[in-house]
Amino acid sequence: MFKTINFNFDIFSKVISASANNYLIRTKFTLEENNTFSELCNNWVQHFSTVTKTNWIVYKTYPNKQRYAYRKDYMCQHASKHKSLSVEQTPDKNRIRNKNCQASIKILIKNETPNTLRKDEFLRKGLNTEIKVILLIKVS
């Protein structure tokens, strides 16, 4: 599936590791005058959704953490979080969105401090964002 996806949305993207269903991507998110980190994350996930034909829901945001600049977690629309488990409650049994899908995207934007620059080689190269994609898509 990932052979057809071009993660190089710009010249600053690099796939760090890729296994069966787990992918680690490093890229660069830069704030401009009218952008926020939340919008940058949403734009990346929207582009990813278009390419992979998947839909993602914001699960959690971590805007004011000391260890990193920003973090936003997404889950597949077919995850079991906040969805009813009862099939009998819906008239159309095919419309149930609870498919127990485990797919998720975690976007972490790191702070650039002298200590983090010393320890993180990708941060030294300007790749301040770490994106973890777990594609355990389970839709029947």
Write up what this structure looks like:
Helices cover 19% and strands 29% of the residues. It is an alpha+beta fold and 140 residues long. The chain has one domain. A six-stranded antiparallel β-sheet has the order 1-2-6-5-4-3, with helices on one face. The longest helix has 16 residues, at 37-52. It starts with 13 loop residues before the first strand and ends in a 6-residue tail after the last strand.
- Order of strands, main sheet, comes to 1-2-6-5-4-3
**Count of DSSP H/I helices:** 3
The chain-level structural class is alpha+beta
Largest sheet composition? 6 strands, antiparallel
Low-confidence stretches: 1-8
Task: Compose a concise summary of this entry.
The protein is α+β, with helices and mostly antiparallel strands. The protein has helices at 37-52, 114-119, 121-124; strands at 14-18, 22-27, 56-62, 68-76, 104-110, 129-134. The protein has a 6-stranded antiparallel beta sheet, covered by helices on one side.
How are the elements arranged and paired?
Layout: E1 14-18, E2 22-27, H1 37-52, E3 56-62, E4 68-76, E5 104-110, H2 114-119, H3 121-124, E6 129-134
Antiparallel strand pairs: 1-2, 2-6, 3-4, 4-5, 5-6
